[in-house]
Amino acid sequence: MTVHTSLLSMIGNTPMLKLTAFDTGPCELFVKLESQNPGGSIKDRVGLAIIEEAEKSGDLKAGGTIIEATAGNTGIGLALVAVIKGYKIILVIPDKMSREKILHLEGLGAEIVLTRSDVPEGHPEYYQDLARTIAAKTPGSFLANQFSNPANPMIHRTTTGPEIWEQMDGNIDAMVAGVGSGGTITGLAEFFKEKNPNIQMVVADPEGSIVADAVIKGSFSYDGGSWLVEGVGEDFIPDNLNVDLIDDAEVVTDKEAFQTLQILIRKEGVLGGSSTGTLVAGAVKWCQKQTSPKRVVTFICDTGNKYLSKAYNKSWLHDNDLLEVETAGNVTDLINRRADQGDMISVSVSDT
Ligand SMILES: Cc1ncc(COP(=O)(O)O)c(C=O)c1O
């Protein structure tokens, strides 16, 4: 077995698993475990590519500061590479993001600026606007900008796509991916459409996001929708998303996504992050609509270890109405934490 001399050479070359627990109609469904990257997500690839391209172009110089607006995983990818290569990093993060990701970033030594999740593009506290403001004020800074940086789709075109092609022996009919920056699906579409234009590119999109409408109807208007899954779904079309290369879309509710995560862990033993629920649920729905056998690939985009206090916490799922609960038709239905279900413990004064 290989001995690595840097964590950077352990990014990519992630394994592929065939799922068996879901009803996929006539299709076979495979997942690429991007959760196995050193930083725990698909974004390690992007962090490495953006920094190395900026080093080559001279946009990032020794002693420089990397700045990014990120939902967390791109920040972890960038911070991981920054720490190994000796750069400072400042990350602007919307406040809905999971505590585990923020603590991971703090552990890596990143400077974190938390900002509001509930403001639109153009607002000074919108995470991307705030990152631009900080970059303009910071000498020697480099704004990574995953939303328009061409290194983002490039790394999926040159590594993720070819790995999938090899793992599937070139026998693949459809790819299902989420859209955050658009880098994954655009890079993969560029690779796969050149190999075989009949390979279908499908977006799995959270309910409330505009991407599915942009793909299916060709137009969209954002109506203030929000969703609990992290890292996928948008209220605008990023520069790195080439909608023309996408063939189809499936809309997935938060409830479907979080329930899919439960099946994944209980039946397949796979601990996926929240967007994995969206992707696998979207892929299963798409598979069930097919009338002929197809080989379909999607991602375990990041590890569920980043979401233990949310996606795998029964109280949080209950509070957000994400659990399918049996109703008794009486007042017990109004009780959030039920002692008979082990959600509540009680002590009396004599219990010392
Ligand atoms: C956590 C996470 N972030 C982002 C994305 C989307 O990637 P991109 O930013 O390349 O569109 C995904 C899944 O595809 C994801 O799971």
Automatic annotation (TrEMBL):
Entry cofactors: pyridoxal 5'-phosphate
GO annotation, biological process: cysteine biosynthetic process from serine
Stretches of the chain forming a coiled coil according to its record: none
Catalytic reaction list: O-acetyl-L-serine + hydrogen sulfide = L-cysteine + acetate
Keywords: Pyridoxal phosphate
Pathway: Amino-acid biosynthesis; L-cysteine biosynthesis; L-cysteine from L-serine: step 2/2
Recorded superkingdom: Bacteria
Name under which the protein is recorded: Cysteine synthase B
